[in-house]
Amino acid sequence: MNAAEQATNLELASKIATVVNLFKFEFPDAKSDLKPWQNDPETRELIDPESIDIGFHFPGISKSWRSRSILIQIRFYQDSINKSRRAIGIEVSGFDHRGQVWQLSTVDQWNFLGESLPSPDVGEKLKQICRQILEVFNLNTPL
Questions:
Q1: What is the DSSP letter of 115?
Q2: For the chain, first and last CA: distance in Å?
Q3: Which residue, 68, 71, 9, 67, is CA-closest to 34?
């Protein structure tokens, strides 16, 4: 779900801003997009209400990213027994004019998959950002 829609309280808005700042610290040319999804019925059917989605766009195709836009989806799990909500993983996808060209999931092996992968340096920075994002959302504070 769009990060702008998920920012329902000060704590969540602050954590979303932290994610944007973490990314922009490493990649200052990127422009953040807190509403990467269109608000139409077809798109709404595909959106995971238990995620926070943030887009980042580069000015042109980034050779190190091998993409023009990045979508970060922070996935959550709501425990119905103890009422806690925690980040369980992050999905990151890179896009160019052809559509999605690579993907990284922190749920399994933390491997990049796709036809045009980011450079090893960018890949390591992105994995570090993902670790930091998980820390931000999994501190002992309720969401």
A1: S
A2: 15
A3: 71
Q: How far apart are CA 111 and CA 123, in angstroms?
A: 9
- The conformation of residue 118, written as its DSSP 8-state character, comes to P
Q: Which string of DSSP letters, residue by residue, matches 77-95?
A: EE-TTT--EEEEEEEEEEE
pLDDT per residue over 66-102, tens digit each? 899 999 999 998 878 887 788 999 999 999 989 999 9
| Global pTM value | 0.86
Residue 74 near residue 52 (C-beta atoms within 8 A) = yes
CB 116 within 8 A of CB 102: yes
- Measured CA to CA, the distance from residue 47 to residue 37 in angstroms comes to 8
For 43, other C-beta atoms within 10 Å of its C-beta total: 10
Tokens of 96: 């160019």
Q: Name, in order, each residue with C-beta under 8 angstroms of 103's C-beta and a sequence gap of 6 or more.
A: 91, 92, 93, 94, 112, 113, 114
